[in-house]
Write a structure and sequence with these properties.
126 residues; alpha+beta; 11% strand; globular
């Protein structure tokens, strides 16, 4: 019985790429469009305060824009800057600072099927 139970758990652990307790800044909203309800931004940046500056001329911080409007959790101190989409696709990001990473991520998401709607809704409040 114990072996059966362990074999049952293998698929769960094999496909769970990031447990939410290992993420530094959790997504503030979750989507029901995919099995993974949020995206993950892996970034080489170490200090979360770098994402606490305002996005453009808005009163929203970079992390709020990403975490709320674009369903994205932030994983600091990663080996490289990447976006892991809700369907598991990984995109390498070329930007190096928080503002540029945010802009690059928004542009990338705006070209995704469900991301187009998120971007359109974001532009309405921005």
């Amino acid at each position: 019985m114990k072996i059966f139970f362990l074999l049952f758990l293998i698929p769960y652990f094999a496909f769970t790429q990031y447990p939410s307790d290992s993420l530094d800044l959790l997504a503030l909203r979750e989507s029901d469009n995919f099995s993974k309800p949020y995206r993950i931004l892996k970034t080489t940046l170490i200090d979360e305060s770098l994402f606490k500056i305002n996005y453009g001329e808005t009163k929203m911080t970079l992390d709020y824009v990403l975490r709320y409007h674009f369903y994205t959790a932030i994983d600091l101190n990663a080996k490289k800057n990447q976006l892991i989409s809700m369907d598991g696709t990984t995109f390498d990001l070329s930007s190096k600072n928080a503002k540029e990473i945010t802009d690059e991520l928004i542009l990338l998401v705006s070209k995704m099927y469900f991301g187009k709607k998120e971007f359109k809704n974001f532009k309405k409040v921005n």
